[in-house]
Specification:
Layout lengths: L4 E10 L2 E11 L4 E5 L6 H8 L7 E6 L2 E2 L5 H11 E4 L11 H11 L4 H14 L15 H13 L5 E5 L7 H18 L2 E5 L3 H4 L4 E6 L2 E4 L5
Helix pairs in contact: 3-4, 3-5, 5-6
The structure holds adenosine-5'-triphosphate.
GO molecular function, one term: ATP binding
Protein name: Putative ABC transport system ATP-binding protein
Pfam family, one: ABC_tran
């Protein structure tokens, strides 16, 4: 089976700093892949290039038969909006909107009616243990609850790949485990693949397999379970 997402030979420099020097990432449909490695090794850059957020200087990124760097900005951002979900470390929710409105936002931006978007958002919030938080604003939620809102928002469009960059980086270990349990079980239920950048081996243990990035190059971390 060919991978759903395949990044090969990625190079990226920021001025004199080499962030990627020939990194690869392959993700099959429904697979959870961890990306580990020391600070500054290029993990986030690899995730951003694979997700079409950053254009690599060289290398290839294929998603479901399309070459991402070859798409124009409009088509690339439409593909990102529909096919990909994102969860970052913190600060990603819109503070003025309620939790429910935050979760529904990607659908609203895609032209879905408020009623339909909020119905779908409500179902996901229930799934993520947030049924009673729909009307709360992000500032009224704990860090773990905010990350679960972010996970619900990442899943709301029914993406095929979720990119999670240190999703538990700002949480204590109990809240972090709860977020990881919910992220991975909800993704598996939805059949979405997950690319999971983390420093934490306990977080990486939720993945099916992993890669390690060092000095901008990647190696396989372990065989598939
Ligand atoms: N926008 C940018 N402008 C300049 N340099 C950058 C930029 N983004 C990343 N870098 C540099 O590229 C290198 C790789 O950064 P990257 O964020 O990919 O590493 P990382 O492994 O995710 O690090 P961390 O674990 O600390 O988040 C670093 O040296 C970083 O300083």
């Amino acid at each position: 089976m060919s991978p759903l997402l395949e990044a090969e030979g990625l190079h990226k420099a920021y001025g004199p700093t080499t962030a990627l020097a020939g990194a690869d990432l392959r993700v099959h449909a429904g697979e959870i892949v961890s990306v580990m490695g020391p600070s500054g090794s290029g993990k986030s850059t690899l995730l951003h290039c694979a997700a079409g957020l950053t254009r690599p200087d060289a290398g290839h990124v294929g998603y479901d038969g399309q070459e991402l760097p070859g798409l124009n900005d409009v088509r690339r951002s439409a593909l990102r909006r529909r096919e990909f979900g994102f969860v970052f470390q913190f600060g990603q929710l819109v503070p003025e909107l309620t939790a429910l409105q935050n979760v529904a936002l990607p659908l609203r931006l895609d032209g879905v009616s408020r009623r339909r978007a909020e119905r779908r958002a409500t179902g996901l919030m229930d799934r993520l243990g947030l049924a009673d938080k729909a009307r709360s604003r992000p500032g009224e939620l704990s860090g773990g609850q905010q990350q679960r809102v972010a996970v619900a928002r990442a899943l709301v469009t029914g993406p095929r790949v979720i990119f999670a960059d240190e999703p538990t980086g700002a949480l204590d270990s109990v809240a972090g485990e709860q977020v990881m349990e919910m992220l991975t079980s909800a993704a598996r239920e939805a059949g979405a693949a997950v690319v999971l950048v983390t420093h934490d081996a306990r977080v990486a243990a939720y993945a099916d397999r992993g890669i390690v990035v060092r000095d901008g190059r990647s190696t396989e971390r372990m065989a598939a379970r």
